[in-house]
User: What shape does this take?
Amino acid sequence: MREQQLQTILQHMPAGIVTLLGPELRYGFVNEAMQALLGGHTPEGEPLAAHPGPLTADIREVMGQVYESGVSYVAKAFPLPLTEPETGQVVPRYFDLALEPLHDDHDQSLGLLVFAVDVTAQEEARQRAHTLSLETRRLDARLRVLTETAPQITFTMDAAGRYEYVSPQWYYFTGQPPTADLNAIWPLLIHPDDRLRVLYQSEVARTNGVGWTYEYRLRRHDGQYRWVLSRALPELHAPDKPVFWHGAVTEVHDQRELAEALRRGEEELRFLADSIPQLIWTASAAGFIDYYNQHTAEYSGLSPKELGPTGWVSLLEPAEQALAARRWVQSVATGQEYEGLCQMRRHDGQYRWHIIRARQLADARGLRWFGACTDVDDQYRLRQVLQTQYDELARTNRDLDTFVYTASHDLKQPLFNLRGLFDELRRTATFTDPEQGDLLQMVDQALGQLDGTLHELAATVQQQRELAAPTEQLDLRSVAEEVLLGLRAQVEEVQATIELDMGAAPTLLYGRANLRSVLHNLISNALKFAHPERAPLIVLRSSLSDSGQPLLTVQDNGLGMSLDTEIAAEAVPALHTFERQHPHVAGAGVGLYLVQRIIDSRGGHLVVNSTVGEGTTFSVQWFE
Assistant: This one.
């Protein structure tokens, strides 16, 4: 009865049980679990080799050796290829196989008792744990490489404030040997002025279970204290309190020094802006003013808060506010510089003229506007007064020109009448005075000089009006030949030789009337003041100066001029109206004065070299 109960219990056990009898290992008792494992084909008395099921050759060989030796053996997590009944796929499953020898009463080997316990779930879990362990070690190695190559000191600290780990960078930075007691040395390397604060903040953060961020000075290997930034976060495993803090120490000394330099620079600039007697302000990229200097508040009588981001518009004269605001919005939208002349209200209610300028600056901090309002009221009103005086002087000058031109024109008729009367008197009257011829010649010369003076006065007024003639690209040879054509009678009278050399600089951007007047006066003077003992030679040459500007030279071999001082090549003598070097030659003395006036009005430069009895050279440098 008991044997039957035992057999029933063994038959339904979840572990596979089988007895293998004799040296052939014939099947004896096989429970249900083992039948399922062996595939359900295990006839009693049949040898194991005939129906091995999933048992591989190597396990069957081991079974034979256990039978012969009589020594038990356990195969842990032995893989057996089993076929899934649902899918028909062969998948490995893992079993713990216990091989126990069976003996009779005389200790003779009867066979084997085999136990098979399915440990597939445990083995797969173990393999997964092993894979995770390998991956964890790989990630840990990668993390260690990253932390030890990053330019930071990384560390791990426990809840008691003891360092569990520190990266090699700490030893490189501090110069401490790897054998140093980290927990004892680290606080001593903190600057004395920062040590108590750092230790307190760290302890408070660990007590509250939170992270920290603070800066302090840490002594470097060379003895210099450098500013560092310490940051750490707790390792949380809810609901337990954190037991580790992981963090990094980064050197921020240069950044802090730069920030301090920028702060000092901003303070100095702000002090400078507050010291300037101008309205200085800055605005954001959107055009809203975010800073006014102290003078702005003093000038307007309003605080920066009262002025606000757009309060400057209300300081303008009401009729100018809308236009100024539109121009400012346009400048902000396009990035173009803002400049305008407006009237701004002072704290006493008086409107004063200001020049408003603003420029945009783009840097690492973004776009910003910098502007200034400069009080130019005194200069503006002075300019108005000067403009009024200038207009009055210009009107007076035009009236004088008109008077001189009219007078010279009106006096020509009486002069013409005097000359006619004198000619009639000389033709009909007789004189017994022995100096009759000299007197008549003197009167004739006086009338000629008076006629020339009136003509020169009229020409002076006319040429003064032509100083503002429009400029154009002129051919120098063509204009010179045109002037010589008008002076042909004088050239033939004195049998002068004229040489033109315009090849080096054939053209000139200048006013045609001005150029003709300059050439006419210089050439006519050279003809007028020719030396009586030699034929006149006049050379006109154009070239380029060392600075690349056009240069005109008019050289003659005439009487020359006597200058007050020895004139160097770069000197310019002062030429005055009615100043004459040779009174015996007819003329009014205004020709050279007109030449210098024309050249000066066009931004040119006149140089005179002259030697009495040898000739004169005029050099005109044009500034295009």
User: Anything to note?
Assistant: Confidence is low (pLDDT under 50) at residues 565-578. Residues 150-251 form a domain with the Beta-Lactamase fold (CATH 3.30.450.20). The two ends are 138 Å apart (CA to CA). The chain is about 45% helix and 25% strand.
